[in-house]
Design brief:
It is elongated and about 180 Å long. The strands form four sheets. Strands 2, 4, 5, 7, 8 and 9 form a six-stranded mixed sheet that branches. The protein is an alpha+beta fold. Helices cover 20% and strands 31% of the residues.
């Protein structure tokens, strides 16, 4: 057998190897390889032409068969690759054709734009809303228990009347549900007041009224005079009275604490007579129970001597 070539690709070298053995393959086979693989530069053609295989015929036969098998394998691989590619492409096309086509998605429909609505002005008070009638705004009256109760009235039917000492109506002093359209306030005490009426139909305005202090009764001691003397039993005290007084009372006391005077003498007239008062220095005052204010009203104390 020929020795191994020195160059890696010497199998396809155009130079003949050593030896003079003739090529065992026919010219037809050589021509077939030449026509299939190209011009004179074809490597396989050169092998047969130059008789590079100078070993035994059997060895050359094996080698030639191996080359043919290798070429056939390469050709089959190339053809198989192309067919596989075509099949793959066909399969892909088939798969694409067979894939379900998604239904077109409808574009979102914009919500209709509503025309701006003009603001409606606040509704007028409904029919039957509360309207205050009496007393008038900022009315005033004097506290007088002889005159009866203060009357409050309105239009609009039943409601709840509310009283407060503040224009904000807080805190409330009194809240009364009324079945009619008027209310009788029994002698509101002196000071500034505010009131309103509420109902299902709405609330009224807030009005104010004021109550002045009751007018004092005009009474005064006339005898004895300041610093005078009178008998402890039988001595007479007199005064000038006023209308609107239920009765009078003369009080004597030796201290400034009038919560519990030592001696008291009552009368419905204009004088009172002492009885059983021990001798000594006293302070004396005159009290009148006013029907207007509903309480006792007193004169300034004076000094007296009881014998």
């Amino acid at each position: 057998m020929n020795s191994a070539p020195n160059q890696p690709n010497s199998t396809f070298n155009s130079q003949p190897a050593s030896g003079t053995q003739s090529n065992p393959f026919t010219a037809d086979l050589k021509g077939e390889f030449t026509s299939n693989f190209g011009t004179n530069t074809n490597a396989v053609s050169q092998i047969f032409k130059d008789g590079s295989f100078s070993g035994s015929g059997k060895s050359r036969t094996y080698i030639m068969i191996g080359v043919l098998v290798l070429c056939a394998a390469v050709g089959w691989y190339v053809l198989s690759g192309d067919e596989g590619s075509e099949e793959t492409a066909d399969d892909a096309a088939t798969a694409e054709d067979a894939a379900p086509v998604a239904a077109p998605v409808a574009a979102p429909v914009a919500a209709p734009v509503e025309a701006p609505v003009a603001e409606t002005p606040a509704a007028a008070p409904a029919a039957g809303a509360i309207t205050l009638t009496a007393p008038e705004a900022s009315a005033s009256l004097a506290y007088d228990e002889t005159q009866g109760s203060a009357m409050f009235s309105w239009e609009g039917g039943p409601g709840t009347i509310v009283f407060s000492r503040h224009s904000s109506m807080q805190p409330e002093v009194m809240r009364v549900k009324v079945s009619g359209a008027s209310y009788s306030f029994h002698h509101p005490w002196p000071g500034q007041w505010f009131w309103k009426v509420e109902s299902d139909a709405g609330g009224s305005e807030v009005r104010s009224f004021s109550v002045s202090a009751p007018v004092r009764r005009n009474v005064a001691l006339t005898a004895p005079a300041v610093g005078g003397t009178l008998a402890g039993t039988g001595g007479v005290v007199s005064w000038t009275g006023d209308k609107g007084v239920a009765y009078y009372r003369v009080e004597l006391n030796q201290s400034d604490d009038w919560s519990n005077p030592q001696f008291k003498f009552s009368s419905s007239g204009s004088q009172a007579q002492l009885n059983g008062v021990a001798a000594g220095q006293y302070k004396m005052r005159l009290g009148a129970f006013s029907e207007v204010s509903g309480r006792w009203e007193y004169s300034q104390p004076t000094s007296v001597t009881v014998q």
